[in-house]
């Protein structure tokens, strides 16, 4: 069993998603820059070590750029719109007087270290979650994720997968067009070069979507099968009513002021109706799967490592939340205790214990 | 511009290294009541949270906001992340992030200072002229000026309604001035829902406006983010509160108080509460560098393999 464990193969995409969502959940619980930085570093290492060579794997850099943009914007907005919370003023900008109708908005003025740091911590949290999602997109094969969808969700899943793969495909498109330009000796810069890239990329996107639509059509996507109109309407109604019931039930369960009879009873009833709808929808969709992905030991290891990070963070935020949300009462280095630190480090396990991806040019096997 | 940036970075570094050490900033304000009509006395009453009430003086002759008074008297405060210091969620690190507050309708509630605290557990804001009864502030802490020679009060409101908010258990009477009478003006109520509306400047000398029959209204939550007490949409009609009597409380009935001289080091308290270790932060930094280096090395090796 262990002899074949480290043979190169693509893991089940759901395992990568569970791992990444675990990291993202952990990130959402804290504003401690040590922990957030560590989560980003862990995600980067695992992506670099275990991504394949598919186009979606190369889009990770874009997510990093997006994360940097988010952090920068948060800090810049704190500086522009009133950053004078706290007592440590680091920069005195001239305040721009605004007319009376704009009362409540402050432009520039004094900027304090506390408010800049507050913006930085807050932005870093969102940026870390974006990086985690980017890691999942880089590691998991979206097409194989679609294969693992339950039959009833197949059509929704198709739309989601097409939407998810737009970004990576654009990245690949840009890369291809730039390479072609380079081969033709096109080294222009500025607006002309932009036009030379944007138009082929857009044309490429249109071509691709037409091709995708044609191939989906020819493979029978969107067919109604043998179900009658009435049966389809009944199934649709069941699913919509069920999902509405689930939404109301979840809201009432989380919100303490809603009447209790809207909470558990509606939630359970909604779930039951939705499950009935799913079963009815699943019965009329018959799709066979070619070589379905198997959930093996490596998948368990990867998913467990992500879940462990989230669980440790939830546990510590229940025990001592102080250092998960660093206080800005007095400026000081953010504090950190051992449990959340070790918990986040558990997320690095896939970099070592996941089987390597299948590469066209395999690197030498490490000793 | 560049040198200015460097100077700013240096300032951040210096303040990070040399953070103020005490819960009470003893370089600001002075313990106890203000001895004269110059400045304002700030009273912090922890009520059900436990802890001795603290009375300190902000001896400033200039005008300033309630926030200036609180910070100028040396209190260490924290605002919620959402509203900043316009909404104070912790005074003297109370309620701390590890304290479970028995707030109604909130199981195991802890104040994390991220969003607006619930109406059942928050710091209520009061003010009073010398020899006057405490008045629940209709204005936010940044939106009104303190009364020179008067009092600013902070009292933790736990499971109270807008009508039963507890005023600080220290009578708003400076020692040695008990024979005086209340001459503080009644503050107008906010006229708009703009959270940045400022209270109009006080005329000087202050005439006694309104009178004894001036009822206190419960604060309207949507008028002012610092007044979260009344969140219900069906407010009862305004009626006089028991505290609206024209005379100040009896100083003989004051709760025990200190000037905050023995308050513990706030950074020590935080470190102790969080179980934080200095080493852990260093390890975290080292781990980030190590992981980044490992990622760089793997990327370089894969790149080389691809080119080979």
UniProtKB/TrEMBL annotation, chain A:
<dbReference type="Pfam" id="PF02361">
    <property type="entry name" value="CbiQ"/>
</dbReference>
<feature type="transmembrane region" description="Helical">
    <location>
        <begin position="335"/>
        <end position="354"/>
    </location>
</feature>
<dbReference type="InterPro" id="IPR003339">
    <property type="entry name" value="ABC/ECF_trnsptr_transmembrane"/>
</dbReference>
<keyword id="KW-0812">Transmembrane</keyword>
<feature type="transmembrane region" description="Helical">
    <location>
        <begin position="33"/>
        <end position="50"/>
    </location>
</feature>
<feature type="transmembrane region" description="Helical">
    <location>
        <begin position="294"/>
        <end position="315"/>
    </location>
</feature>
<feature type="transmembrane region" description="Helical">
    <location>
        <begin position="62"/>
        <end position="84"/>
    </location>
</feature>
<keyword id="KW-0472">Membrane</keyword>
<feature type="transmembrane region" description="Helical">
    <location>
        <begin position="260"/>
        <end position="282"/>
    </location>
</feature>
<feature type="transmembrane region" description="Helical">
    <location>
        <begin position="233"/>
        <end position="254"/>
    </location>
</feature>
<feature type="transmembrane region" description="Helical">
    <location>
        <begin position="96"/>
        <end position="117"/>
    </location>
</feature>
<protein>
    <submittedName>
        <fullName>Cobalt ABC transporter permease</fullName>
    </submittedName>
</protein>
<keyword id="KW-1133">Transmembrane helix</keyword>
